[in-house]
Design a protein that fits this description.
Structural class: alpha+beta
Radius of gyration: 15 Å
CATH topology: Alpha-D-Glucose-1,6-Bisphosphate, Chain A, domain 4
Largest sheet: 7 strands, antiparallel
CATH class: Alpha Beta
CATH architecture: 2-Layer Sandwich
Order of helices and strands: EHEEEEEEHH
Number of strands: 7
Oligomer: single chain
Number of domains: 1
């Protein structure tokens, strides 16, 4: 039996699929203000970094309005793992469906599996950004992205991981 990739989901009432799609295309508003490059169209490449702990480069491979966004991890470096190939080649998908006045977003990092050294830290961080920061952006207009290399992840999450 193969390991399962990390996935999490949210449902937001009163928000259209297009609004969720547009928010996903702006990771500076919900993931990190430390994003360089465009993330809003197929073929665009962008970088992310968090302190000296994590750097990654992504390419947008799908952008179907109101339905799906996908990123391919081109390069990645975690300061705290031995296997520097973790994440490289992973696909991150945001699948969006609207029904009865609510929109569901299913986030999956295909290839992020429990055997990865980074799994616990990545699980906690993605869970925060997808289930707290992104919905806050959608419902209040203000997400909780990392800013100026300062984490927005709750202190208890950072402390539990010892790495964020």
């Amino acid at each position: 039996m193969s390991e399962q990739s990390f996935t999490t989901a949210i449902t937001v009432d009163g928000v259209s699929a297009r609004q969720v799609y547009d928010a996903v295309l702006d990771p500076r508003a919900w993931w990190s203000e430390e994003i360089d490059g465009p993330a809003d169209r197929v073929g665009a490449e962008f970088g992310y970094h968090y302190l000296d702990t994590h750097r990654t480069r992504m390419r947008v491979t799908e952008a179907v309005p109101g339905r799906r966004v996908a990123w391919l991890v081109l390069d990645n470096d975690f300061a705290f793992v031995e296997d520097k190939t973790e994440w490289i080649g992973n696909t991150i998908t945001f699948d969006i469906t609207e029904k009865d006045g609510a929109t569901e977003l299913v986030f999956t990092q295909h290839g992020l599996v429990p055997s990865y050294d980074c799994y616990d830290a990545c699980h906690s961080a993605w869970t925060f950004f997808v289930t707290e920061s992104l919905p806050a952006l959608l419902t209040t207009g203000e997400g909780r992205p990392n800013s100026d290399a300062k984490p927005r992840v709750p202190a208890e999450v950072a402390a539990a991981n010892g790495r964020l």
